Amino acid sequence: MSNSAQDPATIAIGIDIGGTGIKGGIVDLARGKLIGDRFRIDTPKPATPAAVAEVVAQIVEELSSREDAPAANTPVGVTFPAIIHRGVARSAANVDKSWIGTDVDSLLTERLGRPVHVMNDADAAGLAEVRYGAGHGVDGTVLVITLGTGIGSALIHNGVLVPNVELGHLEIDSAVAETKASASARERDDLSWDEYAERLQRFFSHVEFLLSPSLFVIGGGISKRAGDYLPKISVNAPMVVASSKNNAGIVGSALQSVISEQLAV
Ligand code: BGC
Fold first, then answer.
1. How far apart are CA 83 and CA 62, in angstroms?
2. For 5, 116, 154, 162, which has the most beta carbons within 10 A of its beta carbon?
3. Family, per the entry (predicted)?
């Protein structure tokens, strides 16, 4: 299956680089759904740029060998859990510090021999949610917040993503928010759901005061347990659980790879 230069691609590969696993899939961009199973390999330890690039290459190779794979020269979308400015990693809160300053776009483009577009993981999830999921068609500001090892955030205004908004790094009560209210902080401090909800309340009230969103979308692994803490949080904007769950990063990055390619023409 291939696309001519004029046709926007309708399928693309997305890869989600996380702290414990690197996952990839072939994405049907019309529906925002995976075609076939996703493919996962453990994140190497230490997760240096070269080691991670190797695993990304193995995943792309596996996906490319499938019958439904997009044409061999189509761009690959990749998410990374850090600030990504013009393809370069500018932070490393929960990843190997050697990533800071690494041109991830170039590293992976060279390793894969095809164009790669890398973006922040929460931004990818945010794009997936406004295009296909809970934030679809919502006017104003949608904030997608992912609760995981850190706190990721995506700010989308009238459908347009403002990249690299790092709300998890807001300092609230003299602490970086994600060190108190991420899913891993809940486990580390062995918090009850009531105690965790209290910390989230402090975070979300502050964020709402700053940005007046129309909608909060909550993602990350712990969104599966949303029933245990979301009803305890009170904000003005509605709060809903992300629809794309585990695959938001793969879907959002695949979509972005195609958008970036069109903008580059
Ligand atoms: C990073 C963000 C990332 C988030 C979720 C934070 O520590 O600074 O860039 O989106 O974790 O992975």
1. 28
2. 154
3. Belongs to the ROK (NagC/XylR) family.
